[in-house]
Amino acid sequence: MIRSATSSPLPSTQNGAVIMPNSAQTTQAGNDSAVESDLNAPVDLPNRIDVTNLNIYYGAFKAVEDVSMTINPQSITALIGPSGCGKSTFLRSLNRMHEVIDGAYVEGSVVINDKDLYGPGVDPVAVRRKIGMVFQRPNPFPTMSIADNVLAGKKLNSKRMSKTEAAELVEESLRGANLWNEVKDRLDKPGSGLSGGQQQRLCIARAIAVSPDVLLMDEPCSALDPISTLAIEELMLELKRTYNIVIVTHNMQQAARVSDRTGFFTIEGTGKPGKLIEMDTTEKIFANPAKQATQDYVTGRFG
Length: 303
Prior knowledge:
By secondary structure, this protein is α/β, with parallel strands linked by helices. Helix content is 31%, strand content 24%. The strands form three sheets. It has a six-stranded mixed sheet, with helices on both faces. Strand 3 and strand 4 form a beta hairpin. Helix 4 (146-156) runs parallel beside helix 7 (196-208), helix 5 (163-176) packs across helix 7 (196-208) and helix 7 packs parallel to helix 8.
């Protein structure tokens, strides 16, 4: 895959800090037709997520405090910050996956398509069907074939399919995950026999097979080599045309490469709740953040 000629220049690093390219040098001066859109403006399209005054608790412990943000569709939003700052907990709250831990609950709202995911009578399982999750380590079902891994979500949701429909869905999903050409001749072989990068793309294929509206990715490249990481990043850039993607990453270069907007979380100390300090366009977060704490983090002074 080749990056579009109109894509943003890649960031570089200097003394551990992420250096964003000077957009003024990469934009043709005087081109009145190239009007830069405001990436921070809410987009009035389906699958926008509006988070308002969200507090996340595990029993009496407040893990995340007072987060408000808008996550626009057809974009990639990155969440960065030091370990333990609540960014993964926040990510999981977007499809209520954190509720698998006893005693978890929230205050505030998470609204998508005019529906509060925490409203009365909302089924968490139904939420997770529409807001998929890709985890840190590839987790294909080890006893299932590649094809059956792709179909697992559909079958779990009791969706009856003919053999023809199943075969078409397997191909469509694997093509969507840029994996079809690599596995089309061994669909009956175990998914666990694939390389790490291929396994992660298989998990992405499994996630998109159920036609979600949003894809959440919790450090999806942390266990992968650089070549596999690049393949996943290129895939994310393609998938954002269809899905609203939110990614947690400790790799700031990755956040700078793939995301449109970035939110920085941090924590004041052990036992304190994580907080969203700043959210802005990725270029501004890495080049000219508004908060000193953000500046210190992206320049490597802590974290």
